[in-house]
Amino acid sequence: MKRTLFPLLLLVGLSFFSSCHISGTEEAMPDTTDALSNSPASEEGAAPEVKPAEPNVKIIKVANLRFQVKDLQASSDNFQQQLSAYNAFIFSSKNLNSEERNELNYTIKVAPSQLDGLVKALQKESIQLDNLHISSQDLTMEYVDVQARIKAKQAVEQRYLDLLKQANKIADVLAIEQELKKVQEETEAMQARLNLLQHQTTYSTLHLSMYQLLPVPVTEEPGFLTDALAALASGWQLCRGFILTLLYLWPVWLIGSAVYLLYRRYSSHKSTIA
C-alpha cells in the first residue's frame, strides 16, 4: 500500500510544481499588447493626409484714385511720409498748374497686400473724392504656361548639346549649332516674359491724382468816371489815327494839288483865247 501511494504523491507533486512554474512564467512575461499599443507607430496612427500644394497665384492689381485736397503742399508732404509705412515708392510724378487749379499726379508701386491700406490712408487727405477704381488681372495660367515652355525648351537645348558632342561632321555641327541658337533665343525671350510677369505681380500700381482749386479773382464793374475816361481815350486815339492817316496820304494830296493847278491854268488860257 505504501509503495502504491508514494508514486501517486510524487506524480501530484510534480504536477503542482509544473503548474506553479508555468504560472510564474506567465506573470513574468511582459504584456506585449500594451507595449505595442503604446508604440510611436500606434500613437501616431495612420499617416496624415497630405494636402495638395496651393497654386502660386499671380495677380496684377491696379488702382486709380483722384480727389480734391484743401492744401496741396501739405497733403503731398503727408502722402510721402505714409509711403514708408506701407513699403511703397514713387515710380513717376508730374505737376500740372493752371489758373483754376494746381495738380499733382503720381504713379506708385506697392506690395499687393499693402495696396488697400494705402488707398484708405490716402483718402483721409481728400475733401472731395472724384474717382476710386481698383482692378485686378489673374496671370497665373500664363505664368505657369511660360514656366512649362521654358522647361521644355531647356530639355530640347540639352538634347542638342548632347548631339553636338556626338557630331563628327562639320555639316552636322553647323546644323546643330544653328538649331541650338534658335532654341536659346526662344528660351531667353520666354525668360524675359517670365521676369516681366514676376515684376508685374510683385508690385501693385496706384495712379494717384491730387488737386487744389485756386480762388477765382472777383472783378468789379467799372463806374461812370472810368467809362468816361475810357471814352475820351478812345476818341483821342480815333482822332490821332485819322490825322496820321491824312499824313500818310501826302503824296495823294500833292498830286491832286498839281492836277488842280494845271486844270485852272488850262481853263484860264482857254477863256483868254476865246
Describe this structure in words.
This protein is α+β, with helices and mostly antiparallel strands and 274 residues long. Among the domains are: 59-138, 2-Layer Sandwich (Alpha-Beta Plaits), CATH 3.30.70; 140-200. The chain is 62% helix and 18% strand. The chain is built from nine helices and five strands. It has helices at 2-28, 32-37, 40-44, 72-85, 115-123, 140-166, 170-202, 224-248, 250-273; strands at 59-68, 89-97, 101-110, 128-138, 204-213. It has a five-stranded mixed β-sheet with strand order 2-3-5-1-4. Strand 2 (89-97) and strand 3 form a beta hairpin. The longest helix has 33 residues, at 170-202. The radius of gyration is 53 Å and the shape is elongated. The model is unreliable at 1-48 and 50-54 (pLDDT under 50).
State the gist of this model.
The chain is α+β, with helices and mostly antiparallel strands and 274 residues long. The protein has helices at residues 2-28, 32-37, 40-44, 72-85, 115-123, 140-166, 170-202, 224-248, 250-273, and strands at residues 59-68, 89-97, 101-110, 128-138, 204-213. A five-stranded mixed β-sheet has the order 2-3-5-1-4.
